[in-house]
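Sample A.
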Amino acid sequence: MQVKYKLLDPRAKAPAYATPGAAAADLCAVLDAPLTLEPGQRAMVPTGLAIELPGPDCVALVYARSGLAIKQGVTLSNCVGVIDSDYRGEIKVGLVNLGAAPVTLAPGERVAQLCIAPVWQAAFAPAEELSDTDRGTGGFGSTGRL
């Protein structure tokens, strides 16, 4: 599948897969200077990148980089970013520092991952009744901790 991209800033980098088996491509920060996120602080980090997905049967999903999230506590403020197929603006990454120490991001640093996935738009239909299942309405830990 081909995904067109446009670099909106001369410092921007094309999305790139780090390894042949990578499921997501790295997104890099376009910053004028290093950005320090204090514990609990959020920031919108520009990538200088816009994309064109091939159609409404695709979505681009922005995920945290595991190294930043696990080692330093910097993750996405909205858990997963959703880029719809008709969006043509700059991809920006909402980050939050959930760690106990400040974290400084450098210009050009990899800050998130971009994964292209299929989409099925549902035909929602009102119903008076829904079918029964063994689980029923149980949720939020109803099946046990393990």
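Sample B.
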Amino acid sequence: MRLSACLPAIALMMMNAVGGFAFAYRSPPGADVVAVAFPPWWSDARVFGAISSADATVVRETAFSSLLVIKLSPVDGLSRLRQTGGWLTLDPQAVAACRKSIS
């Protein structure tokens, strides 16, 4: 069997796994601290600019520069974050293992 014949099935399984993770660990309603994922190809400056534009503050970084734990603005914080480019918000405890190592 050729690998190219399996690629659609592999892609579908990966999308299912990511979707399942996102659903299982989504941020609770009314949370003021969330983990947010931005597009992975964005620069650090663009990610931090989007957070600043949403009047949010960084609580902690993770091992991935496009995944941060932030404190939302008290006024319409979640929708403002999505307008600035935030893809997905998760429960911050779900990304606790993704801590940035300090060496």
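B remarks: The domain at 26-98 is CATH 3.30.70 (Alpha-Beta Plaits). The first strand starts at residue 33 and ends at 37.
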